[in-house]
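Thread: "does anyone have the structure for this chain?"

Original post by V.I.:
We have the sequence but no experimental structure in hand. Need at least a predicted one for the grant figures.
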Amino acid sequence: MWNKLKDITGAVTRREVLLIALIAVMCAFFAIEGIRYLSAQQRKGEDALRENTAESVAMVNSNNGLGCPVDSCGNNRGSCAHYVNGEYIGYYDDINNAIIAQRPFGYNDYEVMTIGDETWRSPTGTMVIRVVTGDGKVKLDWERGKQ
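Reply from O.Q.:
Generated one for you, tokens below.
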């Protein structure tokens, strides 16, 4: 043992090289997994931000859920084409930040979308937010986008 401590040649053994390589591979693995996890969390956050924005736009457009949320509509219950079974229906357009009448192309960034207690699963880029207003309430849910 004393001879090894006094040896100043500085040679690295095969075992040490192998251990250094294994430690480097483990560090790379954990770095890649960490980046993948953070990316998934970011995509979830972007979908949640879209939901909050859609709700805010719908609240403003529909006078807090009393009228039609669609931007181009006059909010007249008798002549509104978006009034179906006692509710107004529109879709959030992510590009123009507006509520529109026709379903746009999908824009979800994550495979699992959650609003309140409800959860939807679908591949990225296939779902849109549907906005339903009426009786002073605004309800959001995810629905398949235009294909």
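V.I.: this helps a lot. The chain has a mean pLDDT of 85.
O.Q.: and Residues 118 and 141 are 8 Å apart (CA to CA).
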